[in-house]
Amino acid sequence: MTRAWILPMSLVLSGVLVATAQVRDGSPVLAVVLLLVFAVLAWLYSPLAFPRSIGAVEAQRRSAADGRPVVYWRAGCVYCLRLRIRLGRDARRSHWVDIRRDPAGAAEVRAANGGDETVPTVVVAGRPHVNPDPAWVRGQLPPSA
């Protein structure tokens, strides 16, 4: 299991334990509600909530060709999740690089942030922007086809 899945799987396991305790206490409806809450949180903090990641080299190549921003992120990052949710369907119009899965992506982020792996780092036209406003990022996306 990769590090990106530790938090989501912990949330699922916690949800199952809490739900089991609620069922034993005679509250099956509350158990189902709590299990659903834990499942949603697990999904939000998993890589599944983000567009498919590609490698940093490939993202840079594609960005140079189509002008789309490159978003460096990692699962479990609240600010990355905020950016992803606020972009909505527009998130697909940028290139996403998971720095936990791609060492070259992590190196790019460290180079842009003085050695820190601060995400989300969005690169637009070769310039990095650390934790930018989602509305600004949406303005940098090319028009949808």
Automatic annotation (TrEMBL):
Transmembrane segments annotated in the record for this chain: 29-46
Keywords: Membrane, Transmembrane, Transmembrane helix
Transmembrane is among the record's keywords: yes
Gene3D superfamilies (UniProt xref): Glutaredoxin
Source domain of life: Bacteria
Domain Glutaredoxin: start-end pairs: 70-127
Native species: [Kitasatospora] papulosa
Ribonucleoprotein as UniProt keyword: no
The protein's name in its UniProt record: Glutaredoxin domain-containing protein
Matching Pfam families: Glutaredoxin (PF00462)
